[in-house]
Design brief:
The complex is a heterodimer of chains A (161) and B (581). Chain A has 161 residues and is α+β, with helices and mostly antiparallel strands. Chain A has two domains: 57 residues, Arc Repressor Mutant, subunit A, CATH 1.10.10; 85 residues, 3-Layer(aba) Sandwich (Glutaredoxin). Chain A has seven helices and four strands; from the N terminus they run ααααβααβββα. In chain A, strands 2-1-3-4 form a four-stranded mixed β-sheet, with helices on one face. The longest helix of chain B has 18 residues. In chain B, strands 10-9-13-11-12 form a five-stranded mixed β-sheet. Chain B has a four-stranded mixed β-sheet with strand order 2-1-3-4, with helices on one face. The relative contact order of chain B is 0.09. In chain B, strand 15 and strand 16 form a beta hairpin. In chain B, helix 2 packs across helix 3. Chain B is built from 24 helices and 17 strands. The chains are: A alpha+beta (161), B alpha/beta (581). Bound molecules: flavin mononucleotide (FMN) and FE2/S2 (inorganic) cluster. FE2/S2 (inorganic) cluster binds next to helix 5 of chain A.
């Protein structure tokens, strides 16, 4: 496991708060993801050790739920809604335009580490469909062109920095 | 006077926070109170700013922008709103709320979700006080009188579940709220928690008392951070006020409460999968029986209800079960909340008495179809539900009538589709969803949905063959009968209902390679009409794959072998010369 060298001491606080009860596995994984931005393998091993749950079980849970990421995330997380209301308002075209523009599939991160793209089901802003969310901020009533201009603004800003 | 800003998720997405700060800035040092409220359901008018005089709503401003902040503040200061008529809600839009009957949403968009005092000022926590003087049996009787059925989808009588959990013996009992809200395109539960968290708490408390539970757990979708934050705050307030904890209001009844955030899996809305997830495991459904009432969370008796179900409870206790059962039809009592979205003019949250027709909801409340297009279908029940066609628009909303159409009441998603929506594409959309969300435990669902998804993909790609429809029908039957849980058992519904009402669209895709909604891009052919083309070259310059040939002032042509059917040429052509067939 030499390729993984996460600072495991950051987990101590989480273990203190959520005693070593396997029932809390999902919550602990959520907290760990908040700390590291994703779930590195050594972090999952450590959590398993602490909760006395096998690594297979921990990884089994981590891969079952869509919230957990096993790879580092880009600086901007783009969530494109694929819920029903967004679907009938053209979210598929929106998603493929964004995907083409960034050159990545859903679930992946651009090679410069700036954007991570994720298709999600319903962001709960259906009346603004189609919707995308960038780092928690929602953008509604989008067209492929509008979405790309928002992203190119971010790109420009990042390039300037 | 008080300025109140609607700060539910949809209001915030439309810019409510920025407006709030701007109003705060201009109102600084003025004698103007500023408050917040949740979602009043008029999502199509967000951001919304209300002006109150005491408890009375005197003005409502809609689609407000940051630049309106200053004049709103000035108008409030001078008590003269004549200059704001351009952003005042129209009478026509007022109808949206006036035509509804609000029980579960009674406080949404009215009270401050972050204030227990405001909830109590509006009659909150009276019901629990009343309940603590009743016997649990009497509470269950009252709920039985009301005829309340579960609003999470299955529509099971609430009193029956409570009674079973009450009779079940166990060391400890749990009452659990299902706030996983998995139907993509539904947001009623989120709105209730964000806008009126105390009504959920009070409903759960009453349930806890009725079944004898010692702990209340709310399982909330992880994608709902604001709902989680407001509920956490509300729980703290209720604990402080003595409604949650040891010896509640001196009654001897004790009950704790906590929140568990889900982690994104549709199947966890199924109650036994939800329990597995609460226990920290992969959310895979259990075989029933035993039912959760006998053996649920940690193998103890547990009762699970939906958010909206709980949101009705305090009202029923306050007003009496018979008052609730006055509303509705023979087999369905009370009201139902729907998230009305899609191609409808006024999208948002609507709560209507059972028995109203779909037509009235979509046309009278929803204001009809956007952009003057024609109505094609309405989808109810999300991935477990179905599409109801134009001919059945006069179907009334009740459990039986909706089931008879092949759709279901569902949890409240109501997505309207117009002539531009391809119904085969819609079926594929839902199968993509269920195939992705199938937990993989049973073969019928895991492999069956995958095979259905493949056939539907073939059809929308223009590669459908004779026999595909028959194969789909066969698969639907087998999956319905064989799947372990509700996810698989209902997964065929979107296909079955579209086959039932829109079979000609399937036939056109397969036999004629034609999509009448012009949505299935693989079947579209873009061509340039020589009579309209003036040779301006705009299309050729904008084509991302250089599929368009032609010289200046001469008719252009599209090379079909290169064209990727992106639609760019038709979008940029100012002469309407690109035809799509
Ligand atoms: C695949 C699947 C997903 C479900 N999702 C939800 C959900 O998101 N919210 C909900 O309240 N019920 C959902 N249900 C229904 C629950 O299993 C359960 O019937 C309901 O929570 C009971 O509450 P009620 O009696 O108040 O309706 C789902 C069922 C299935 C099979
Ligand atoms: S369907 Fe996209 S926000 Fe709900």
């Amino acid at each position: 496991m030499s390729e993984y060298k996460s600072d495991l001491t950051k987990l101590e606080k989480v273990f203190e708060e959520y005693e070593s009860n396997p029932e809390n596995l999902i919550t602990i994984l959520q907290k760990a993801q908040e700390i590291y931005g994703y779930l590195p393998k050594d972090v999952m091993y450590k959590i398993g050790e602490k909760l006395k749950v096998s690594p297979a079980k921990v990884i089994g849970v981590a891969t079952f739920y869509s919230q957990f990421r096993l790879e580092p995330m880009g600086k901007y997380l783009i969530m494109i809604c694929q819920g029903t209301a967004c679907h009938v308002s053209g979210s598929e075209k929106l998603a493929s335009a964004v995907s083409d523009y960034l050159g990545i599939e859903s679930g992946k991160t651009t090679s410069d580490g700036v954007f991570t793209l994720q298709k999600v089901a319903c962001l709960g802003c259906c009346s603004l469909a189609p919707v995308m969310m960038i780092n928690g901020e929602a953008y509604g009533r989008l067209t492929p062109e509008k979405a790309i201009s928002i992203l190119s603004e971010i790109r420009k800003k990042e390039a300037a920095e | 006077m008080r300025i109140v800003i609607g700060e539910g998720s949809c209001g915030i997405a439309a810019g409510a926070i920025k407006i709030h700060s701007a109003i705060e800035k201009y109102a600084a040092e003025k004698d103007i109170e500023i408050g917040i409220t949740g979602c009043n359901g008029m999502c199509f008018l967000e951001p919304i700013v209300d002006i109150y005089d005491g408890k009375e709503l005197i003005k409502r401003f809609v689609r407000v922008s940051e630049s309106d902040a200053e004049r709103i503040v000035n108008a409030v200061e001078n008590e003269d709103f004549s200059s704001l008529s351009d952003i005042e809600i129209s009478d026509e839009d007022k109808n949206f709320l006036d035509l509804q009957t609000r029980i579960a949403l009674r406080n949404c968009g009215k009270t401050d979700p972050e204030s227990i005092e405001d909830y109590m000022d509006n009659g909150g926590y009276k019901a629990i006080k009343k309940v603590l003087k009743m016997s649990p049996k009497e509470v269950i009787e009252e709920i039985k009188f009301s005829g309340l059925a579960g609003r999470g989808g299955a529509g099971f009588p609430t009193w029956f579940k409570w009674s079973a959990a009450r009779k079940s013996a166990g060391e400890k009992k749990y009452i659990i709220c299902n706030a996983d809200e998995g139907d993509p395109g539904a947001f009623m539960d989120r709105a209730v928690i964000e806008s009126d968290p105390h009504s959920l708490i009070e409903g759960m408390l009453i349930g806890a008392y009725a079944i004898g539970a010692q702990e209340m757990i709310v399982y909330v979708r992880a994608e709902y951070p604001l709902a989680i934050k407001r509920l956490e705050e509300a729980i703290k307030q209720a604990e402080k006020a003595g409604f949650i904890g040891e010896n509640i209001l001196g009654s001897g009844f004790s009950c704790k409460m906590r929140i568990k955030a889900g982690a994104g899996a549709f199947v966890c809305g199924e109650e036994t999968a939800l329990i597995e997830s609460l226990e920290g495991k992969r959310g895979m459904p259990r075989l029933k029986p035993p039912f959760p009432a006998q053996s649920g969370f940690k193998n103890e008796p547990s009762n699970i209800n939906n958010v909206e179900t709980f949101a009705n409870i305090a009202w029923i206790i306050e007003n009496g079960g018979s008052e609730f059962s006055k509303l509705g039809t023979e087999n369905s009592k009370g009201t139902k909340v729907f998230a009305l979205t899609g191609k409808v003019n006024k999208s948002g949250l609507v709560e209507v008495p059972m028995g109203m027709t779909l037509r009235d909801v979509i046309y009278k409340i929803g204001g009809g179809i956007k952009n003057g297009k024609s109505f094609k279908a309405v989808q109810l029940g999300g991935p477990s539900g179905g599409c109801i066609p134009k001919e059945l628009l006069d179907t009334v909303i009740d459990y039986k009538s909706l089931s008879a159409t092949g759709a279901i009441m569902g949890s409240g998603g109501m997505v309207v589709m117009d002539e531009d929506t391809c119904m085969v594409g819609m079926a594929k959309f839902f199968l993509d969803f269920t195939a992705e969300e199938s937990c993989g435990k049973c073969v019928h669902c895991r492999i069956g949905t995958k095979r259905m998804q493949e056939i539907l993909t073939k059809i929308v790609n223009g590669e459908g063959e004779q026999g595909d429809i028959e194969l789909l029908e066969e698969l639907c039957g087998v999956i319905k009968d064989g799947a372990l849980c509700g996810l698989g058992q209902t997964a065929p519904n979107p296909v079955l209902t579209t086959l039932r009402y829109f079979k000609d669209e399937y036939d056109e895709h397969i036999s004629e390679h034609r999509c009448r909604a012009k949505e299935c891009s693989a079947m579209l052919k873009y061509s340039i009409n020589p009579e309209k083309c003036i040779g301006c070259t705009v299309c050729a310059r904008n084509c991302p794959v250089k599929a368009i040939n032609g010289e200046l002032k001469k008719t252009h042509t599209i090379d079909q072998n290169i064209c990727i059917k992106c639609g760019m040429c038709s979008k940029v052509c100012r002469f309407g010369a690109v035809s799509i067939g």
